[in-house]
Amino acid sequence: MPGSVKLSCRNLWKVYGPDPSRFFARNSMAPEVLATEMRAQGYIPAAIDVGFDVHVGETFVIMGLSGSGKSTVVRCLSRLIEPEHGQVLLDGQDLLAKSDRDLIEIRRHKMGMVFQNFGLLPHLTVIENISFPLRLQGLTPAAQRDRAAHVIDLVGLKGRENSYPRQLSGGQQQRVGIARSLAVEPELWFLDEPFSALDPLIRRQMQDEFLRIQRVLKKSIVFITHDFMEALRIADRMAIMRDGRVVQIGTPEELILNPADDYIAQFTGEVPPIKILRAHQCAVAIANRPVGLPQIAPDERMEGLLPKLAASPAGLDVVGPDGAYLGTVTATSLVETLGRVEGAGPVRVAHG
After folding, report:
1. Half-sphere exposure of 25 (CA within 13 A, CB side)
2. Using one digit for the tens of pLDDT, what is the confidence trace for 142-161?
3. HSE of 222 in the Cβ direction (CA atoms, 13 Å)?
4. What's the whole-model pTM score?
5. Is the Cβ–Cβ distance between 215 and 207 less than 8 Å?
């Protein structure tokens, strides 16, 4: 079950042009009609009536092609740029109504931000870069060192504390950026394409590192990416944007198996089904199955079942949280399920 809502984005608009706020004065047009009217007058609606919730401990991914509005939205959430309309509620308090002074304190103590550009200070060492926001918080030098040492260990940079950014690889520099962001112990973490500048091997390693850190810390995260395979690895839920609007929100599986329209289907169409199908979807009931088969959870990904089936050719019993038998996955049932999905195209799955 999802946790309580940490961040809520409601009816958020960002519009570029002279005095765009005038469009929202007692305006009752539907969002798509209003956006069309704006464009007709030479305005650029970069975020159009965007809304979603981020739950406590959830990794919420926003993705889309270049120009879809995803980075605009995350900058509006943190008020690095000012939206024209809507609400951004953090623990029920509207960030758009906060004073500059209040916002500074919220950023210092409740928010962490990591961007594609690492933004390290070249004249400071690793530990000095990480300690920098702690100094702004007013922590004592001893407290700064203790907390910096903790996150350095967390991101796997122990032994590089006194290195300068120029002495680090791209992946190591990004780890410093992540550690600096985590040092403030944020309740809400914004990451805007943090790994896109890295080569594929380092990028995969950083995704692994991110997942490891999240398993430990369970932060509430908004993660921006244009890479669906990256989103598939890290997202609890995700929103896909197009032309400033959110087209669909759901788990990666829901978006792949139940696309809302042809755009979502095309966006997700290259994902191999084996990466998203779950054990319960390829399980079959076997009346006289062998006793003592290994047990697996219903939501285990099909991809991870292959080595387990190799070790247990007779099959794997799918067992629910209450211990109830839900079926057995065999090599045959797995292959048949893949064949049906590949042959049928996008699968419509009923959700109860």
Report:
1. 4
2. 999 999 999 998 888 899 99
3. 29
4. 0.83
5. no
Cα separations in angstroms, 278 against 33, 249, 290, 302, 321: 40, 19, 22, 5, 15
Q: Classify burial at 266, counting beta carbons within 10 Å of its beta carbon; exposed 0-12, middle 13-18, buried 19 or more.
A: exposed
If we measure between CA atoms, which residue out of 101, 97, 81, 100 comes closest to residue 89?
Answer: 97
Architecture label for domain 273-344: Alpha-Beta Complex (3.90)
Q: Which two tokens stand for residue 184?
A: 């403030």
What residues does each domain of the chain span?
A: 273-344
User: pLDDT at position 3, please?
Assistant: 67
Tokens representing residue 243 in the block: 């032309």
Total number of residues shown for the chain: 352
Contact call for residues 120 and 175 (beta carbons, < 8 A): no
Taking the C-alpha atoms of residue 74 and residue 240, their distance in angstroms, rounded to an integer, is: 13
pLDDT, one tens digit per residue, over 248-287 is 999 988 888 788 999 998 888 778 888 888 899 899 998 8
Output the average pLDDT for the chain.
89
Sign of CA dihedral 64, 175, 4, 8: negative
